[in-house]
Amino acid sequence: MSIDVKEFHWLADMLESVEVGLVILDLDYRVQAWNGFMANHSGINAHRIRDRILFDAFPELPQTWLERKIETVIQLNVRAFTSWEQRPYLFRFRNSRPITGIDEFMYQNLTISPISGPDGAVEKICLMIYDVTEIASGRLALEKANALLAKLSKTDRLTGLLNRGTWEQLLDVEFERFRRYAHDTSLVMLDIDHFKSVNDNHGHVVGDDVIRHTAELIRRNLRGSDVAGRYGGEEFGIIMPETDTDGAIALCERIRASVEASVISTASGGLTYTISLGVATLDGDVDNYMSWVEQADRALYAAKEGGRNQVRAHPV
User: Fold this and answer.
1) Tens-of-pLDDT digits for all 316 residues of the chain?
2) Is the dihedral of CA 170, 175, 177, 182 positive or negative?
3) Residue 234: CATH number of its domain
4) Exposure class string for 28-52: b at 16+ Cβ within 10 A, else e
5) Buried b / exposed e along 133-151 (16+ C-beta atoms within 10 A)
6) I need a surface site. Which of 84, 152, 162, 186 has the fewest CB within 10 A?
7) Alpha-carbon distance 100 to 136, whole Å?
8) 172 lies in the same domain as 296
9) 188 and 134: one domain?
10) CATH code of the domain covering residue 22
């Protein structure tokens, strides 16, 4: 059968210029073909890499993984495909696309195809590498944005603690857990003493700083199982699973003392402030989580009436 030379050159030109990586390997993993895409992104031309073992030329390749994939293709004589979601890239090529230049490396899809001889036996392997950086970058950016939106929907923007809605949902879950298992669980409600005077005398910017500072001190003193949230304004709530009244009071005292000892810098000098805290440990007399909050609020009110900067526990 005669070969059309013009058709051969047309096909060769197309393979050289196509925006897909094309690598032909023999069964010993020696490179038999290496198109322009691969040469441009690797910096190695076809003449230099021909007949070299692929893994010698690119020792960073996942050799065990790729060999296993290729062996399966040879044995079954079928194509195999992997996406960037399974493995971000095969070849560690720099991302050269200006639109998606924020990604350091090129995301790639990979197709592994068998090339059979006249007798039907697999003689060579074709690797086709697709640059999918724009698709991957868009997907990852969307996922990141969605994750951020999900986080923002659950957290208070000023403090980074859980917002009231999310925190109350967890409080309800903890209440239901108590009804089932009757374990010790305490709730703390706290707020900043004389907060209105802070805003009046120093302005709302300083007021926000005080709220953020309080949230940070709460966060620093919590244990791994405790859950804090901003209940509203200058008021905060803390759920303390597996904690009796004495344990809750001890932790509240640490938070109270750390706030009392701290100083916030303002334009007019250092600002000190205090907090008051109320503790309610669940018992069988509470019908729902809102009644539990009311108990902790009554203890908080007693702390305020008793002179502030203190911890009180229900019943008062």
Assistant:
1) 444 545 545 555 656 667 899 999 999 999 999 999 999 999 999 999 999 999 999 999 999 999 999 999 999 999 999 999 999 999 999 887 655 446 788 999 999 999 998 888 999 999 999 999 888 887 887 777 766 666 667 899 999 999 999 999 999 999 988 888 888 999 999 999 999 999 999 999 999 999 999 999 999 999 988 999 999 999 999 999 999 999 999 999 999 999 999 999 988 889 999 999 999 999 878 889 999 999 999 999 999 999 999 999 999 8
2) positive
3) 3.30.70.270
4) ebbbbbbbbbbbebbebeeeebeee
5) beebbeebeeeeeeeeeee
6) 152
7) 10
8) yes
9) no
10) 3.30.450.20
Placement of tokens 């050799």 in the chain: 63
Residue 232 lies in a domain: yes
Residue 185 token pair = 């669980």
Closest CA to 244 of 291, 160, 182: 182
CB contact set of 258 (below 8 Å; sequence gap of 6+): 217, 220, 221
Examine residue 149 and state whether it is found in any structural domain, yes or no.
Answer: no
How would you classify residue 182: left for phi > 0, otherwise alpha for psi between -120 and 50, otherwise beta?
Answer: left
pTM over 0.85: no
For residue 79, the enclosing domain spans 5-140
Asked whether residue 109 is domain-assigned, the answer is yes
